[in-house]
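Practice problem: predict the structure.
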Amino acid sequence: MSVAPPRKKSRAVFWIAAVVIGSIILATALFANDMRNLRALDNRYHLNLFPKPEQHTSNPPAQTPAPISAPASTVVETAAAEKPVVTPGSPPVRTVKTSARPRIDRPRPTRTSHLFDAPVDELLSAFVRSWRISGQTLCADLVKFGLPVGEWRSSELGVGTSECSYAMQKGTYGNAGASSFFIIVRGKPTGEIETVRIKVLMPDNADGKAVASSFVDTVVLLLNETHWLDFQTALDAIGKLQDITLQAFGAKLAFFKEFSANSSFNLQLEMRRTSPEQQRTAIVFDKARWTLPSPSSAN
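Answer:
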């Protein structure tokens, strides 16, 4: 008899390690290059982390009177006096000529980090959801559940689409007491699911109640397979046959009654990425656009 390791302790250790590593990375980014990034953050958000030294006003220096130019004869005599006297047998005196052009110190180019730049609207992205299960696995789970949808296969819509489906009808079509159940899972040949649709006809009779029970159990199975816990709040409204629509992170759940019949209902689970930010994120993580194989397929 094996004893499973304590998962709560391992999760706590993982989160503590993640926080410590993240703190080290953040501190390195802020304090590197003479705290250049930290100073940029201080200037942008006016945190006053580096107080400026007080500037003391000093009295302007007193103006000295301009020197009175001496006569030309005096200048000549002074120049002659300053000229070194060379005596016989003494080593020659070298005169160093200094350049009159002043030295200009050019400022060195500084490299600033773009970590704290203002966001660019054309480059914004958003979190998007994806199915945590492949089409092949979901179809196999539906078969085990009791819905013979078959295997994940190419769709009749054309190349680039795969699906699995199942349809069941009790009673004559068009009859008021007839009941039916239809489900289809559709996506890409790689196994990425795009939409799941269920259409049921549940009249108030024995067959309709059997279809309703199977329909509710199938919805619970789908929501458990997606791991989208916030969508599970729709189960109460679906059980009461009330219209409900939930949409979050590029995924949508819709349950509604058809206008043609009071006992006909539709359920849709699909990827609905409407904003430009969600579309950009979906394009980046679309495996069909990758030039290199994904890690999962490489293994």
